[in-house]
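For the sake of transparency, this paper describes our internal protein records without simplification. The record that follows is passed on verbatim for readers who wish to inspect the format:
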Amino acid sequence: MGSSLQTHLLSYWVRDKQQFTLEEAVRMLTFDNASAWELDDRGLLRAGYAADLVVFDEARTKPCLPTVEQDLPGGAGRLVQKADGIAATIVNGAVAVENGEATGRSAGIVLKGRLAA
């Protein structure tokens, strides 16, 4: 299932309500989470860090309504929630999602910080 928490933060709390700056919201979604989970090579754009990026249009980013996809084994359904305004998701330097569609490139790994081990 997708999640609308991130796009809701950007569209509602940043753009509509102006309770956070865009920079504060991006920090909360990236560096603050990486730090909380003790993922030391993520959350900042810095040499030697993993190249995980989301390319989005600040003026258009918003959550879409959830849909039910029947693509699980046995035809079981699952909720999927996509977003408008996101051009690409780049994982470890490879474009994994472009314009809402998976590219088939899978450069990611399962992450576990010291707290999750």
Summary: The chain has one domain: 5-102.
